[in-house]
């Protein structure tokens, strides 16, 4: 069996309910993994939220909206929903932001699977089959750094199976980023609704954008800032200011 080349990242991120994300610099991932290992069991979801806030800040998300979601096959069909969810996040409406992204993850995941001539009966299987087929394609066609691709795909499969789509009663962390609990209403307001819930779900959207790019002429690197994305990032910061001035936490 072929194994990936980043098992130390896989293990570190899996231990705190995360995965190897696309569009992230290796230096960032290395520093984050080192901090997880240094703190051990003391590294909590609050720590993870702080790290992901840097990864999914106004500048990076604005660049994705302007230069990636717009042009990525399948993902572009959900570009308005994604953009609205991002706005809701910066306005502090995290329950709404997450509720907007969960259908995108499932819809885009199924469509990407169908585009590869594959199908499944259960939504959790969508992501396992997508990851498996991407690994196969990387190996057979020598696409990308195969060992790193394998690690990323295995990491995401672990995340979807054991975090995002695990039985809500077995959810292993305190943040509540769980599809079943959120969409079935078994999770109430107090069970989720923090920025980390948004970060984990937008991370899954980005992963599907990465999968789509396997068969499209789109870079696997994070998009550069443009004049348009800088204006959008400024708007996001204005939304954060509105939230701050309102005096409400929304969570």
Automatic annotation (TrEMBL):
<protein>
    <submittedName>
        <fullName>Uncharacterized protein</fullName>
    </submittedName>
</protein>
């Amino acid at each position: 069996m072929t194994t990936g080349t980043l098992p130390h990242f896989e293990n570190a991120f899996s231990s705190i309910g995360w995965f190897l994300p696309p569009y992230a610099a290796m230096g960032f991932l290395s520093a984050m993994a080192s901090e997880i290992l240094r703190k051990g069991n003391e590294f909590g979801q609050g720590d993870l939220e702080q790290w992901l806030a840097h990864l999914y800040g106004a500048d990076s998300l604005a660049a994705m909206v302007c230069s990636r979601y717009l042009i990525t096959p399948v993902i572009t069909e959900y570009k308005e929903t994604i953009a609205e969810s991002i706005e809701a996040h910066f306005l502090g409406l995290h329950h709404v932001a997450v509720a907007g992204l969960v259908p995108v993850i499932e819809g885009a995941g199924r469509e990407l699977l169908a585009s590869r001539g594959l199908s499944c009966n259960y939504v959790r299987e969508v992501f396992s089959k997508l990851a498996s087929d991407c690994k196969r394609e990387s190996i057979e066609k020598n696409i990308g750094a195969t060992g790193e691709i394998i690690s990323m795909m295995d990491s995401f499969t672990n995340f979807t199976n054991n975090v995002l789509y695990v039985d809500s009663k077995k959810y292993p962390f305190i943040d509540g980023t769980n599809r079943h609990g959120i969409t079935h209403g078994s999770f109430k307001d107090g069970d989720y609704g923090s920025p980390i819930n948004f970060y984990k779900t937008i991370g899954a959207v980005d992963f599907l954008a990465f999968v789509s790019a396997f068969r499209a002429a789109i870079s696997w690197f994070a998009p550069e800032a443009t004049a348009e994305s800088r204006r959008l990032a400024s708007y996001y910061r204005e939304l954060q200011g509105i939230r701050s001035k309102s005096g409400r936490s929304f969570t």
